[in-house]
Amino acid sequence: MNVLAKAVSGRVHYAWIVAALVFALLMCAAGVRSSPGVLIVPLEHAFGWDRATISSAIALNLVLFGFMGPFAGAAMLRFGIRKTVLVALTLMVIGVASSTQMTQPWHMMLTWGLVVGVGSGLAATVLAATVVNRWFTERRGLVMGLLTASTATGQLVFLPLLASISESYGWQALTWTVVGVIVAIIPLIAWLLVERPQDLGLHSLGATSTEPGTAQAATGNPIIIAWDALARALPVRDFWLLFGSFFICGLSTNGLIGTHFIAFCYDGGMPEVQAAGILAMMGIFNLVGTTLSGWLSDRYDGRWLLFWYYGLRGLSLLYLPYADMTPTGLIVFSVFYGLDWIATVPPTLRIVTDIFGRRDAAVVFGWIFLGHQLGAGVAAYGGGAVRSAFGVYTGAFLVAGIMCAVAAFGVLAIQRGGRTPLPAAA
Fold first, then answer.
1. Are the C-beta atoms of residues 32 and 158 closer than 8 Å to each other?
2. Separation between Cα atoms, residue 383 and residue 400, nearest integer Å
3. What DSSP element (H or E) covers 401?
């Protein structure tokens, strides 16, 4: 594998090739994560399930997606990135393919909820954090922004396609398309993903020597590694501020808009494909905003970046229920919301790295990302429950907007400049 990697690298530092591979992987994973939002209305029509029932499976998926994060980070330290990612992709293929045979709500809970949730959680944002801290000394914020923006790119590429396939050929065709996308990325990961710069005789990009804690794999049980990192993080007040802000981040993005936006537009009389197109258009602004956020994270105080991101997102959510339900009327929301959809990730990771050090950062970030997905799960189920109870999503959007304001002011209490990194586990 190293011979092939060296042949591919040429004159380009292999860190960029690893980043490109991870970008492609996360973009495809975004297609998997986007699918449930497209499936809500088709499954409602096919089986007569209400949105609260469908949303419960999506909520389980989102929570497991987050819960696996710290263990994924620990597994990458112990067993390597490539092995962990290949296991994740295999689980996603099994879960999505099995879902084509579902006829009962518990089938969806088992496939899309449990199996896909665990699989996608093993190849989540923690993967990007691990790669950035392992392969890059310079331009970490920029690269983290680009990798985080892969979700936006996947959204842009897959959402209109998946909605069109579902509308034309049915929801099973959509799921087989997702399976094909996952299968296609597996050989690239198996052949070209290199664990560490040292495996190719390189230093991380921008480093002049091998940095402590980056050259060797961790030893010990990855579950213990994950829990030990949490034990060191729990007494730190800033951990809880970041955990809480990311809970609100997930609640106001993946859980609410990512899950329910297409169904919300459908309720307003807009066809699913057109609604998916608008959600994909947000991906364009998301790509720009998240990449720019990474660049800004290398230069400015992450607390103030997060303040503006959460504040603008809250305003856009308060506006959405009263927007004119036409493509033109949703442009204002799409611009402001899209620009900071996941722009919070680069400054959050930068703050985590400043506080906990590069070795612990990915695992601790995984625990903070759990907060993100707990919030997403609450909003995914809660949004469906609000719609089932009141016939509209208005209350869910207003609550999310107010909580974003809470997060905006909460992040300002984080200690400026971080702390001396905590000692790593023995």
1. no
2. 10
3. helix 394-410
Count of other CB atoms within 10 angstroms of residue 183: 15
18 CB-contact burial (10 Å; exposed 0-12 / middle 13-18 / buried 19+):
buried
- Is 215 part of a structural domain of the chain? no
| DSSP result, 325-360 | SSTTTTHHHHHHHHHTSSTTHHHHHHHHHHHHHHHH
Tell me the CA end-to-end span of the chain in Å, nearest whole number: 31
Distance CA 414, CA 79 (A): 33
Cα 94 from Cα 61, distance rounded (Å): 15
Domains in the chain, number: 1
User: 50: which 2 tokens?
Assistant: 């209400």
* CA distances for 407 relative to 65, 149, 168, 292, 327, angstroms: 22, 22, 41, 21, 29
In a domain, 205, yes or no: no
Can you give the residue range of the structural domain that contains 9?
Answer: 2-198+222-413
The answer to whether residue 101 sits within a structural domain is: yes
- State whether residue 383 is helix, strand or coil: helix
CA 41 to each of CA 167, 169, 200, 274, 277: distance values in angstroms, whole numbers, following the listed order: 10, 14, 49, 14, 16
Residues 207/78/195/341 CA torsion (nearest 10 deg): -80
pTM over 0.90: no
Question: What are 120's two structure tokens?
Answer: 């996608």
8-state DSSP, 422 = P
Q: What is the DSSP letter of 420?
A: P
- The CATH number of whichever domain residue 226 belongs to comes to 1.20.1250.20
- Tens of pLDDT, residue by residue over 214-263, are 445 555 566 787 888 889 899 999 999 999 999 999 999 878 988 888 88
Report which of 313, 312, 424 is spatially closest to residue 364, judged by C-alpha positions: 424
378's tokens: 């609450």
HSE-CB at 233 with a 13 A cutoff on CA atoms is 28
Q: What is the pLDDT of residues 382-423, one digit of tens each?
A: 998 899 889 899 999 999 999 999 999 999 999 865 444 444
Is 350 domain-assigned?
yes
Let me know if 106 is exposed, middle or buried by CB neighbors in 10 A (0-12, 13-18, 19+).
exposed
